[in-house]
Predict the 3D structure of the following.
Amino acid sequence: MTGFSVSLIVSNLSNVASYLSPIFETIPSTKVVPAQIEKVVSLVSRTGRDLQRYDNSGYRQVVGCVPYRYKKQQANGVESKEIELLLISAQKGKGMLFPKGGWEIDESMEEAALRETIEEAGVTGELEERLGKWQYKSKRQSVIHEGYMFALRVDQEYERWPEAETRQRRWVGLDEAREVCQNWWMREALEAFVNLKCKAEEVEIEADDV
């Protein structure tokens, strides 16, 4: 490339910069964030098992949630509330289940439960009681898992979430949840949830009667 060519290119770039400079000055320097966005959810799920937690027996530790909400109903002038549960489709095979996944060494059990629920179901909320612990064998691998489940009262549901392309989610009543949940240990977690909430409702009713 000759010296004349280099000089011509530099001259042209200077002209372009001079032309664009007033335009850039009119662009606000502050970032504009829509007011309706309260939280930003990462659209990338954690992958790999480098940080996976195992117990002393070599059981893989997993944790998840039974997400629920109260749906208000009114009949004959009497208001009541019904529990609805959120289930998600399995990535492989048929059936529905509750969100769960690997508990990793850089997070607490509660943090893992909330993270997995956001990644798989796209909801979050108030993490409540631990429902229990179950041991089960993976269908795809000869690995024993130790699963912990929590009740989660949902207060936020996202339209976009990390596994939205591979999972469906559906709010259902208790009877339907019992019928469509494919994992035996998750059905037991559901019964533990029902027993817990029924006792809480009885206490609330007794308190109202006093």
